[in-house]
Amino acid sequence: MAARYGVTRTPFLKTIVHDDPLGGKCILYGLCVRVCDEIMGASAINFINRGPSTVANILFFEENPDCQGCRTCAKVCPTGAIVIEDLGDTRIMKSWSGTRIKLQQCTGCGIYFGPRKLLEKSLTHLDPGIAEELRLLCPACRSKRIAVDEIRAKTGGLSHHARS
Ligand code: SF4
Question: How many domains does the chain have?
Fold first, then answer.
């Protein structure tokens, strides 16, 4: 938008940080900080430092166990500044001091599909029996399981082949 209106320079000093964990892409828009606090309730990141040195990050640039590894901050970032990498059973929040989050493996298909602690938190509102049964399944396997259960319930447990 600035370019469209002919704004090509800023009067503010820009500090170049060579080991910037956000790769110089952060424009301090702040959606990551807001979504982490207001939607996820984690408050794992914030604006730190002052003036041209202001950055969005974790206080003291240390690993933060409050981060749930939900990736919501990365999804709302308009410049794609937040780098996250999944390696086996671990999600590494590269931009957030390398905070490491354990991922849950699906007992249906074997993929690692989501942060364990977030999963446990999100299933607390379900009936404990159902939550326990679905907890270890990825969304795709969970949908399949629910569909199969619904078909079984409607057909009295008979499969398509058994009825035809
Ligand atoms: S991944 Fe971590 S820092 Fe990002 S929104 Fe989720 S809890 Fe907050």
Answer: 1
- Specify if 35 maps to a domain: yes
Q: What is the pLDDT of residue 86?
A: 96
| d(C-alpha 139, C-alpha 13), whole Å | 47
Residue 56 Cβ inside 6 Å of ligand 1? The answer reads no
The side-by-side arrangement of strands in the sheet containing 90-93 is 84-87, 90-93, 99-105, 112-115
Ligand 1: nearest atom to the Cα of 74: 4
pTM (predicted TM-score):
0.78
What are 81-94's pLDDT values in tens digits?
999 999 999 999 99
Q: Is 33 in the pocket of ligand 1 (CB under 6 A)?
A: no
Please report, for the domain that includes residue 69, its CATH number. 3.30.70
Q: By residue range, what is the domain housing residue 77? A: 1-102
Atom number, ligand 1, closest to the C-alpha of residue 84: 1
